[in-house]
Amino acid sequence: MEPHFTSETTAEDVAAVFATEIVTKNVLITGTSINGLGFESARVIAKHANLVIITGYNEERLKLSQDALQKEFPSANIRHLILDLSSMASVRKAAAEVNAYAEPIHVLINNAAAPLGKFKITSDGLERQIAIDHVGLFLFTKLLVPKLLASATPAYTPRVVVVASNAHRAAPAIDFSTLFQPDEKTFDTINVYGQAKSANILAMGELARRAQGKLNAYALHPRVIYTNTVHHPEMLPVLQQAGVLDQNGNPTPLLQWRTIPQGAAPIVIAAFDPRLNDRSGAYLEDCQIATETIAPHTSDPARAETLWKMTEAIIEEEFTV
């Protein structure tokens, strides 16, 4: 019987169903702090996978995640990698480390994202949220393509997964004339978040098109999840002002909240469900394909190509598959 997943499905449920798909795979997951979606994804995948690589920009927190995973699964092969997506130099250093591994990478899960918050400029002169959520992700993926393609066989196509959001629907369309020209006067953290998530979806659609079957790319909405990021000192007041959290930092009924295990479920589906093999470029929501729900400004191939070329100019490298 074909498995049927719903909004109530957990990542553990999905990993159990696809254990035979996971068992020989090497998986890299960005953004894996404890009490987050990346950590939960790593946890359920580590039970079965050949290798799980977890990343983060903070050595101490990353070590806590690795220790927690090894404690639960002593025989699991867990490797950690320092990766600061806000810095292109850090991205290049981390990618070089991965490319020096003996093993290929079967699945790249781009989960890390910047917290909502104050206007900040990175060392590369980019607005922080766009730098982390799109540019750093784009560059990291580009640099790991050879490692991903090395895992391909006649029976297996490597995958790239990005955790996006249905917040892209509420945000205005990406203004390409200002996307990479930070301006504090016009900065709105919620709008920038939505546009960054639009960029995630556009980029995965374009990657799927350009890859021509060499690798598969997917984007997804994990639903509204109460993760560790919610209490980031910059993000908490933003969410409170929006009425999403109360004065004590607890969820309000304004949104329909899901658990971390439920939020990680579509990530594991996108990474391993064999029924997606011929659906590269798909967008998942509530653990189902929901590509038809993508906002028009985020599903336009012409806009996807424009974004791709502009990002190539920013990283000063062509991204070819």
Automatic annotation (TrEMBL):
Keywords: Oxidoreductase. The keyword Oxidoreductase applies. Signal peptide: none annotated. InterPro entries: NAD(P)-bd_dom_sf, SDR_fam. It holds the Pfam family adh_short. Coiled coil: none annotated. GO terms for molecular function: oxidoreductase activity. Belongs to the short-chain dehydrogenases/reductases (SDR) family. This is Uncharacterized protein.
